[in-house]
C-alpha cells in the first residue's frame, strides 16, 4: 500500500489521537499493554506523528488498569507513586503494601489521598 492510502491515513490519524509521551518512556515500565501505540510494531510507525491533545484526562491505576475517581480515589505511597485505593486494598497483606514499581514496603496507613484540582 502506498503512503497516501486511505488505510495509512486512517491508521496514522488513530495512532496520533491516542499517542502520549508515556508511549516513549525509556524505562519500558510505563507502557500500557492495552495501548496500540505502546506495541513494538505500531510504536515505530507512530514515532513521527504528533502527540494527542487531551483536554480532559483521567487517572488510571497501574496495578488494576481501573480509572481512579471518587469510588476509587488515587492514593500516594510515601515514595510518590500513585495507585487506586481499591488496588491497594486488594494487594494489602497484614496492613502492608508493596509498591509494584520499587518493591518498597509501606504500611497501608502511610498511603495518602491525592486531591486534583
Describe the structure.
The protein is α+β, with helices and mostly antiparallel strands and 117 residues long. The chain has 2 domains: 6-47, no CATH class; 56-116, Herpes Virus-1. It has helices at residues 6-18, 40-46, 85-91; strands at residues 59-60, 67-68, 74-76, 82-84, 96-98, 105-107, 112-113. The strands form 3 sheets. A 3-stranded antiparallel β-sheet has the order 4-3-7. It is elongated.
The Cα radius of gyration reads: 18 Å
Number of domains: 2
Share of helix among residues?
10-25%
CATH topology of the largest domain: Herpes Virus-1
CATH class of the largest domain: Alpha Beta
Share of β-strand residues: 15-25%
| Average pLDDT, all residues | 89
Low-confidence stretches: none
Strand order of the largest sheet: 4-3-7
Oligomer: single chain
Keywords: Metal-binding, Zinc, Zinc-finger
Organism: Micrurus spixii
Protein name: RING-Gid-type domain-containing protein
Pfam family, one: zf-RING_UBOX
Quick overview:
Residues 35-102 form the RING-Gid-type domain. By secondary structure, the protein is α+β, with helices and mostly antiparallel strands.
